[in-house]
């Protein structure tokens, strides 16, 4: 079983199991030919798979216009996103952190699932009628997989649209816009905008049995332990899958970055879909390069061997 795991950016590469026997396209030849060869090989593996695990990262949602919060794009005002996504940041300045998450919630509400989200959802629905399964293991907190009608989604890092009370611990779905009156019109990412400095009593509060405790986003922040109620089913799905896709993830946020290589170490085919190579590319059976909204619909389309 997975022991308690803390969300972090990097881990020594030696901690990731080595993968042997990966089938790689030989260097040389045109990019188009290499792409076609990889896709054809993947499609054969896809046609034979009964339990498919799809691990998704920020690159999938980026194609819907949601920032990845990496590099130069990872700034909100003058802070890096990862400096706000910590328990310490929330303890020091809950108003600032709530402004940041209010901005993310409001932006996400006006975005739509893209072709990659829809391809995954359609694949899950289609294969379920054939007695085959698809599970989405996502690092994303935007809910776009569910809005695309995916049913079997495991959210590693929580959800923007749930809250957790810091007093009583109650977790609740929350799609209010704005989440509270005091945040209306707040949260601009402009570096010249000053903090709103909203009094804590006016930030989102718990409504359960007159608790009135301060609410926080129900997301996993850096330095926090991932929820065992999510990790346990994730572990099970990774143990039974006979095909794994790693889609739109940088492979630098752990523990999710370990999942693909761990599956590959069992001799299970793993396909990476990304716009570029990642630190884990060499572990995987297939690397299919390009925008996920272009490559996934083709990769997950009905195979000619399917009868339903």
Structural overview:
The chain has 308 residues and is α/β, with parallel strands linked by helices. It is 31% helix and 16% strand. The protein contains 10 helices and 11 strands. Strands 5-4-1-9-10-11 form a 6-stranded parallel beta sheet, sandwiched between helices. Strand 6 and strand 7 form a beta hairpin. Mean pLDDT is 90; it is low at 10-29.
Helix and strand layout, with pairings?
Layout lengths: L30 H18 L2 E6 L1 H5 L12 E2 L2 E2 H4 L2 H6 L1 H16 L5 H14 L4 E6 L5 H4 L5 E3 L2 E8 L5 E3 L41 E5 L8 H13 L2 E5 L8 H9 L5 E5 L11 E4 L2 H8 L9
Parallel strand pairs: 1-4, 1-9, 4-5, 9-10, 10-11
Antiparallel strand pairs: 2-3, 6-7, 6-8
Helix pairs in contact: 6-10
Summarize the structure in short.
By secondary structure, this protein is α/β, with parallel strands linked by helices. The chain contains 10 helices and 11 strands.
Gyration radius (Cα, Å) is 20 Å
| Low-pLDDT windows of residues | 10-29
Element-level helix/strand string:
HEHEEHHHHEHEEEEHEHEEH
Largest sheet: 6 strands, parallel
Number of helices: 10
């Amino acid at each position: 079983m997975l022991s308690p795991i803390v969300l972090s950016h990097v881990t020594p590469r030696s901690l990731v199991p080595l993968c042997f026997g990966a089938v790689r396209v030989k260097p040389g030849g045109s990019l188009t030919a290499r792409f076609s060869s990889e896709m054809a090989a993947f499609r054969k593996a896809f046609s034979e798979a009964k339990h498919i695990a799809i691990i998704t990262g920020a690159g999938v949602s980026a194609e819907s216009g949601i920032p990845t919060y990496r590099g130069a794009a990872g700034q909100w005002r003058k802070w890096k996103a990862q400096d706000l996504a910590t328990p310490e940041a929330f303890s020091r300045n809950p108003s600032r952190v709530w402004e940041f998450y209010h901005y993310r919630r409001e932006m996400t509400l006006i975005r739509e699932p893209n072709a990659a989200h829809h391809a995954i959802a359609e694949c899950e629905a289609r294969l379920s009628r054939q007695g085959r399964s698809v599970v989405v293991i996502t690092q994303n907190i935007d809910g776009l997989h569910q809005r695309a009608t995916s049913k079997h989604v495991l959210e590693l890092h929580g959800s923007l649209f749930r809250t957790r009370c810091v007093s009583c611990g109650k977790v609740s779905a929350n799609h209010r816009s704005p989440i509270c009156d005091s945040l209306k019109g707040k949260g601009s990412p402009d570096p010249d905008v000053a903090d709103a400095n909203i009094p804590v009593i006016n930030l989102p509060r718990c409504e359960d049995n007159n608790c009135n405790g301060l609410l926080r986003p129900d997301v996993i922040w850096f330095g926090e332990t991932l929820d065992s109620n999510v990790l346990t089913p994730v572990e099970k799905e990774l143990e039974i899958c006979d095909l794994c896709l790693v889609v739109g993830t940088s492979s630098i946020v752990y523990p999710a970055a370990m999942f693909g290589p761990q599956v590959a170490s069992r001799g299970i085919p793993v396909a990476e879909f990304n716009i570029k190579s990642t630190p884990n590319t060499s572990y995987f059976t297939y690397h299919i390069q390009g925008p996920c909204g272009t490559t996934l619909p083709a990769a997950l389309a009905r195979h000619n061997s399917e009868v339903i």
